[in-house]
Specification:
The chain is an alpha/beta fold and 194 residues long. It has seven helices and five strands, in the order βαβαβαβαβααα. The longest helix has 25 residues.
Length: 194
Amino acid sequence: MPVISVIVGSTREGRFSEKPAKWIFDHLGKREDIDARLLDLREFPMPFFDQAMPPATPGRPPFQNEVVQRWTAAIAASDGFVVATPEYNYGPPAVLKNAIDWVFPEWHRKPMAFVSWGSAAGVRSVQQLREMAAELQLAPVKSAVHIPVSTLTAHFMGGDVEAGLAELDPLAGALIDDLLWWTNALSSARAATA
């Protein structure tokens, strides 16, 4: 059974990201053909990348930081990803970019989908993440969920976030179907070339 990990892409106080991450995680959990996992970056407090050799360096020694080792192992154990990300200043949060940058071969040849929000529903953050994904040999899935500003505003104003997310349930289903297709296809291809 493929492992699909939802990455919670924000760690700030009062964050909205827990709600859409849990929402898409719950949708994944309803499927009997998926082992859904939640990777909250709050549980992986990595330092900003400062190593002499980048993760892509062939033959480099393993990184010694225990949190980085746990994070890398979690990525290696996953067959596909859903990144739940806000948009900060036209891009993804620094903590998410840093988490991505600590890993290299463990990302390769796996699919990645996106749930986003922000002033433009997070589309600019996702655009940048798609480019990063391609560089890491990830396959960014076309289907995505872009949460309207009204649902984000409800979080900060004490409104009904769940109702806003429920309106997006059909998009979640399409995202999961596409992600699972790519997950199975790429898992088979990786196994055939191992």
